[in-house]
# Entry
Amino acid sequence: MNLPRFLSLGLSCAMLFTAACSKQPAPASTAANPAAAPAKIKLGFLVKQPEEPWFQDEWKGAEKAATQYGFDLIKQGVQDGEKVMGMIDNLAVAGAQGFVICTPDVRLGPALMARAKQRGLKVVTVDDQFISDGKLMLEVPYLGMSASRIGGQQGQTLFSEAKKRGWRTEDTAVCAVTFEELDTARERTDGSIAALQAAGFPADRIFKAAKKTTDIPGSFDAANILLTQHPEVKRWLILGMNDSAVLGAVRAMESRGFTADTAVGIGINGTDCLDELRKAKPTPFSGSMRVSAIGEGYRTAEMLFKWVKDGTQPALDTRTEGTLMTRENFEQVIKQESSQP
Ligand code: FCA
# Structure
């Protein structure tokens, strides 16, 4: 054996020996080493009103996707712009690669997208679509309700409820709780009003009550003002963009003596009204257009995950449909929904 070969063999043995005995971790690329597995994907799910059952259900759906696909989910309520911007930074620091968001203000869209881009985070929007210079930001993936259609179903249902009760148009009016600065909200209430008119309800007996905040107190206040302005109305039909909008108006009506015999409201969401529908004594809130919030949370989280993991671009516009649920059938509607894949 020549000297150089001997030396090199000796060196290799020494290296092997050192590697075997050393306490240092083996090189990160060893397949057998679990530490070498790629880091788990981390995704955020940010919502504007975490106290609303609608958004809690979206989180449940996102959690389902996280368990199924094996990613980490960071859930956070973001009630204003400052919280959104802070949370984008926090997500980036935590090593997240993207987030799903229902923004507290649609006009935050451009600033939010700029910050997300700067931080290398992908964004999927749910429910409320971003606005830039008064126009929808159609380039950002969005999943939300078929707003005008679901609103239309709310209006048709209200019309048939009035007919079923034999209410005369002269005594009846519509309380439309609106929040027109939000597109999805305006499309729902416009759709509902259009359906009532198409069915023959007179336009001059449809009154809008604009709410300042999208919660029950906001809608209570808006409806209260309308009731003060129209003491002559004996029967009310109540519509609004979601369950909270209708629930607030129902509470305002009740405080003035209206009951299930003199007022009827149909919500949208079908998530925030379950306690109401379970009440032993019927209130004016008689049903809601149920949309699967769990499904929306699951699908948006799934879209984002596939985008991050495989580079699969999500569809830019995905819409969901609603089903009417009433005091009579709501438990069944929910059960049916949960049995769907
Ligand atoms: C908006 C409303 C929510 C829900 C969602 C689909 O964000 O605020 O209550 O209706 O659209």
Summary: Residues 3-21 form the longest helix (19 residues). The pocket of alpha-D-fucopyranose is lined by residues 52, 54, 102, 127-128, 145, 184, 214, 242, 269 (CB under 6 Å). Residues 1-32 have pLDDT under 50 and may be disordered. The chain has eleven helices and 14 strands.
